[in-house]
Amino acid sequence: MNTDCLFCRIARGEAKADVVYRTPTLVAIRDINPQAPTHVLVIPTEHVETLGDTADAEFLGSLLVAASEVARRERIDLRGYRVVINNKAESGQTVPHIHLHVLGGRAMKWPPG
Ligand code: AMP
Ligand code: ZN
Fold first, then answer.
1. Helix, strand or coil, per DSSP, at residue 40
2. Which pLDDT tens digit goes with each residue over 1-53?
3. Is 91 helix (H, G, I), strand (E, B) or coil?
4. Phi, psi angles (nearest 5°) of residue 56
């Protein structure tokens, strides 16, 4: 637990968020600044900053399984959706607590900006 971390506080229910899915080890919330009609963040309760800060395959796998479940619940799984993890400054990561963006509900471009 990092008391200064927004996503630690959200994952523990100590800061307000629009929760769409929860397990004992993670929470999925609507992004406050959505970049697609559906934009959900999958956030683990455990404070890990970036992908490079863990080699725990079970932990990382649980995040992907949750992203798939969120996509199904949000009904974006059949048409298609994107899952993104930004890591460190050049990627655009602004909250240093690992999270998966689940984006859908519109056609996506490639390469990303
Ligand atoms: P990233 O840029 O990959 O670190 O993503 C951080 C995301 O968190 C951004 O898409 C923000 O819009 C989102 N965000 C920041 N604060 C909140 C909040 N209080 N509730 C929901 N989403 C948030
Ligand atoms: Zn944190």
1. strand
2. 788 999 999 999 999 999 999 999 999 999 999 999 999 999 999 999 999 99
3. helix
4. -80, 100
Determine if ligand 1 sits within 6 Å of the CB of residue 17.
Answer: yes
Name the residue at shortest CA distance from atom 8 of ligand 1: 31
Dihedral of alpha carbons 84, 41, 32, 38, sign = positive
What order do you get walking across the sheet with 19-23 strand by strand? 19-23, 26-30, 38-44, 100-104, 81-84
Which element (helix H / strand E) includes 22? strand 19-23
Q: Is 44 exposed, middle or buried (0-12, 13-18, 19+ CB in 10 A)?
A: buried
Domain ranges, ordered by start, for the chain: 6-104
Indicate if ligand 1 lies below 6 Å from the C-beta of 42: no
- What fold characterizes domain 6-104? HIT family, subunit A (3.30.428)
In whole angstroms, give the CA distance from residue 74 to residue 94: 25
